[in-house]
Amino acid sequence: MKSAVLVFPGINRERDMARTLRLISGQEPAMVWHADTALPAGTDLVVIPGGFSYGDYLRCGAIAARAPIMNAVREHAARGGLVLGVCNGFQILCETGLLPGVLMRNAALKFICKDVYLRVERSDTPFTCGYNAGQVIRVPVAHGEGNYVADAATVAALEAGGRVAYRYCAPDGALDPAWNVNGAINSIAGILNERGNVLGLMPHPENHVESSIGPTDGRGLFAGLVQHFAKAA
Amino acid sequence: MIRNEPPITPELVAEHGLKPDEYRRILDLIGREPSFTELGIFSAMWNEHCSYKSSKVHLRGLPTKAPWVIQGPGENAGVIDIGDGLAVVFKMESHNHPSYIEPYQGAATGVGGILRDVFTMGARPIACLNALSFGDPKHPKTRHLVSGVVAGIGGYGNSFGVPTVGGQVRFHTRYDGNNLVNAMAVGLARTDGIFYAAASGVGMPIVYLGSKTGRDGIHGASMASAEFGEGAEEKRPTVQVGDPFSEKLLLEACLEIMAKDCVIAIQDMGAAGLTCSAVEMGAKGDLGVDLELDSVPCRETGMSAYEMMLSESQERMLMVLKPEKEKEAEAIFRKWGLDFAIVGRTTPSKRFIVKHGGDVMADLPIKELGDEAPVYNRPFVETPKQPAIKAESVKPPMSTADALEKLIASPDLCSKRWVWEQYDHVILGNTVQRPGGDAAVVRVEEGPKGLALTVDVTPRYCEADPFEGGKQAVAEAWRNLVAVGARPLALTDNLNFGNPEKPEIMGQFVGCVRGIAEACKALDFPVVSGNVSLYNETQGRAILPTPSIGGVGLLDDYTRSASLAFKAEGEAILLLGETQGWLGQSLYLREICGREEGAPPPVDLVEERENGDAVRALIAGGRVTAVHDLSDGGLLVALAEMAMASGIGAALDAPPSDTPAHAYWFGEDQARYLVTVPAADAEAVIAIARTAGVLAARIGTTGGAAIALPGERAILVKALAERFEGWLPNYMAGGPN
Prior knowledge:
The complex is a heterodimer.
Chain A: E1 3-7, H1 14-25, E2 30-33, E3 45-48, H2 69-78, E4 82-86, H3 88-96, E5 102-104, E6 112-120, E7 136-143, E8 147-149, H4 152-160, E9 164-169, E10 188-192, E11 198-201, H5 219-232
Parallel strand pairs in A: 1-2, 1-3, 3-4, 4-11
Antiparallel strand pairs in A: 5-8, 6-7, 6-9, 9-10, 10-11
Helix pairs in contact in A: 1-5
Chain B: H1 10-15, H2 20-30, H3 36-46, H4 48-51, H5 56-59, E1 69-71, E2 78-83, E3 86-94, H6 96-101, H7 103-119, E4 124-134, H8 142-160, E5 164-171, E6 180-190, E7 205-210, H9 220-223, H10 244-259, E8 263-268, H11 273-284, E9 288-292, H12 305-310, E10 316-321, H13 326-335, E11 339-347, E12 351-356, E13 359-365, H14 366-369, H15 400-408, H16 417-420, E14 431-433, E15 440-443, E16 450-456, H17 459-464, H18 466-483, E17 487-496, H19 503-523, E18 527-533, E19 537-538, E20 541-542, E21 546-555, E22 571-576, H20 587-592, H21 605-620, E23 626-629, H22 634-646, E24 650-652, H23 661-666, E25 673-678, H24 682-691, E26 696-702, E27 706-708, E28 715-716, H25 717-732
């Protein structure tokens, strides 16, 4: 799996993401600078990591969405290439229009960093095939603006199309407002685009991949991607 | 001749915080009246914050050397060797006054400043900690300050991208009107890639990097060197505004040009901004500096030399570059979108010359400005000793179970989850032990080494007996590092006190520093960096003496660190160390009996070391399953914390007959630890401890859903945890205090 990790000024989880990709795919990802206009040849997976691109100024992700490299990302997605946006990456994907909706401030109006539980809604996508449908995983969140919102028609379309890939839930998998960490509509933590090749996800699976550091539930997402490309090859 | 507007009057001199004798010293030094800009420069360099003029003579008594110390106090941060060609760079610094005036920005720029100190030396920051002291929860401003300070620390650190992994939060009425924000940053560098402030070579370009200069923070350091009176809020314009985004860019750009070997010397612009950084680079390198202010990137037009020299705009650096690398360095800074301007040259003259608009605005001797600032040996009186309180004389006003429930939900002992969940503590993917334990543990690069990090001090002990309190602060930091299995290596101190011109305050300072020195020597735990914050007084009332100690320890294998949660049911609970039942200055006495009095628990440093060394050996040998040090609240509070972290209860034996029960459960005797071991190993572990000269006894067994004490109602762990977790969120939501 050849992956490319985008680096915008102010992004700060690019090293976490690169280490995880290296650990699980066995391949060093390419770090791609925001001012570049092309992705490395043969890129399978584009990853937009977390952080505070451009200081979150204007609106989270708004400036990054207009960076030169994003044209190449749009073309990659249009060709059916896979794009994963985590945290600020999710916000950037919404700002580029590759995903619908927007991430608003957390319902409690505070930055929140803690482990949360996610229910994997389906296992038949490249971004979820490392898990079983209905499986509950524990991964950390670290964000101030992760409260997913879209208009009713968009949410209905997401639900009807099975495009909600991950939801915040209780440890037993039940949907419960008390476990919906940021107040997202329908407890949405991660969504797919219509074609299913772009995923935006607020939590950080890349921080839960090593047993010596903590839980390893984040591995499945990356292992699933590796498996997807291995099958395709 | 230097043009002088406005004229220098005694009032103007006083407004600059300079005493008449200090002004006379200036006149003698330069042989003429200083210009307005020069007066500003002197006030910036000679204030307490920058010059350490009241503290210097006493700080000399601190041990600062060890074979593993690469750089002690005097640089931007301390540096220690952890092997494998790696060094840990760390320091703690206060941002107290700004955080009271403008809590969010004050705290945020405190974090920004300490991060800059660390990466200025070539280190990539890997962790932050902080120690926060707020006023009485009932004080009308306390909620506002807690909310703003915590958001500010998180706002800066989260965006910059460093995990905030530990700290302390306390409340006491003596911090009303003068809260403390002490921020610590820890970075990792190659031992052959450490950068220093001393300039070298004549005619070298001095480069200004980072954000533009504005009118914010002018006289910030002078403000921080005076007491607050009425109308402290009017000083808001002296507080700087932070931009973590710029700082993140500055970090990446600095590390990149350091890696390309472009840098001769580097100094961040913190307190007193351009003045302090330029003078220090020259003075430390025995060189003069010529500054051309017309080249300084400014955010606003029409800034005067005075304003530029005293601005404390954030996210700026000064660097002496290798001339042949100028173009390469500039390209790197342009790539990161940062300002880059050559604003001066080093000279052989040892003069500090500032030019603006074709005029010389300042021409001063650089050594006298920098390392030859005034030094005071201020008069001091020792704090009178308080009598030791006999446990028998303290009548327990409630049952042990009730007292535990009350203590665990008291402001100082309750869970600080509400605080640390606003800090990103998992970024970088190396946080092995998160906040809430004895010390945080972070992995070093890809391992196997790990660092243990903690911040500690018990201000009420320092108030009652500065010498013992100073010792205890160091001992507790050392103990917390030991409790996770680390070898304590070195510390940074952040000494927060009142007005040093008052002999009794100076006595607190001197006593604490002596106590710190004594403990550092006994524990081989040198001071490698630090910061002194004096004049923490509002309307004549001083804070509790608060010498925060930030400790760093090393684990050879981070996967073998110990944690405080019980691991299984049916394990033996062992108490290591001697329990006399010391209630003087305990939280039991304060929170349950409403008394703040008595001598604090004495610290026997020999015992401290023996007990700690034994515990570390037990952890390294894999003999213990959980470890927790005993501190605030004593034995039963520590045990409750171990139970709540795991959800597993415990059945405890009766106290020894010669100790009153409340003193046994809640006394704060020092040098103690609780450990758990598989029941079958209990005798063997006790024997090992005793062989090492450590008192050890089995006091109970883990298991069940409650803490069961002889003769007391069962205390359900789940209910206790709800109380423990409940106080702070309820308080911040506007609930009862």
